[in-house]
Amino acid sequence: MLQCHVCQSDKVDCLWPVRDNPEYLVYSCQECGVKFLLPQPTDAFLRDLYSKSYYDAWGIEEYSGSVRDMKLSTFDLRLNLIKKYKKQGNILDVGCATGFFLEGASAAGFTPFGVEISDYSFNIAKGKFGEEALFQGILEDCPFAERSFDVITMSDLLEHVRNPHTVMEKVRALLKDDGIVMIMTPDTDSLTHWIMREKWVHYKIEHLFYFNKESIRLLADRHDFQVLCLDPARKTLNIAYFYHQFEIYRHWLLTPLIRLLHTLLPPKMLLSNFNVTIGEMVLLMQKNDHSGGKTK
């Protein structure tokens, strides 16, 4: 019997195939609202997917400086939120990619550590922070000591994991008792999902789980975390970035629209950054305090 991967309910509906890949189906839980992909792609498929070409959607070669500025600006938004609760300490970025978030975290006074599965991006991050600060692989296998991190972050990561529960178990083990967790992930209750439905840009083969606010709160509760804040996530983007994204992940409406803008706008405007919400949410949480007092 097919069950929800988050709440174990058997009230599960098949919604639709992933666009352009009909062998992969999106299912939805009637109880908690989480959506998930079946079948999951193989490890070999994902290793090939997360190669250098995966980052072509960033436009990282053509606009390397612009992409860096854009990513750092986005992560400054996340760091400003984190610094309301933690000003310094060891920070672990899970799915650190080429290390843009860790650059910002280091500049803000944190000691950076990362986990990354991609050979391509791991080697770039290793050149920035050293091999001792990084682990190549999945979070569940990393050798970092328990209770060694003041902050653990997962930006655009939770939707990629095979099992959210084992990830959250490892996060809880690695986090200090007064530590903070930040998660940014697509929100299936967002306006963009409501408008685009099965054509939603976040429905991809590599995205195995799709949460809304109810299901992400349930996941936090199952692992004994209390939610500190849960809001729509703004990102810093520009038209050049959108252009590269929608050339790789083509959309019947957005790809021709962005192509037109890319043709008409001058280069300076293509690289002008702006903050926008594109259907994602950001969550901050900490371990529940069972001592009778407030977690500090």
Overall pLDDT metric: 92
Number of helices: 10
Count every beta strand, where a strand is a DSSP E run of 2 or more residues.
11
Strand content: 25-35%
Radius of gyration: 19 Å
Q: What class, by secondary structure content? A: alpha/beta
Q: How do the strands of the widest beta sheet line up side by side?
A: 6-5-4-7-8-11-10
Low-confidence stretches: none
Gross CATH architecture of one domain: 3-Layer(aba) Sandwich
CATH topology of one domain: the name is: Rossmann fold
Helix content: 25-40%
Order of helices and strands: EEEHHEHEHEEHEHEHEHHHE
Q: What would you call the shape? A: globular
Alpha carbon gap, first and last residue: 43 Å
Name of the CATH class of one domain: Alpha Beta
- Name of the CATH superfamily of one domain: Vaccinia Virus protein VP39
Oligomer: single chain
The biggest beta sheet is recorded as: 7 strands, mixed
Can you tell me about this structure?
With 296 residues, the chain is an alpha/beta fold. The protein has a domain of 205 residues: 3-Layer(aba) Sandwich (Rossmann fold), CATH 3.40.50. It is built from ten helices and eleven strands. The protein has a seven-stranded mixed β-sheet, with helices on both faces. α2 crosses α3. The longest helix is centred in the N-terminal third of the chain and has 19 residues. It is globular. The model has no long low-confidence stretch (mean pLDDT 92).
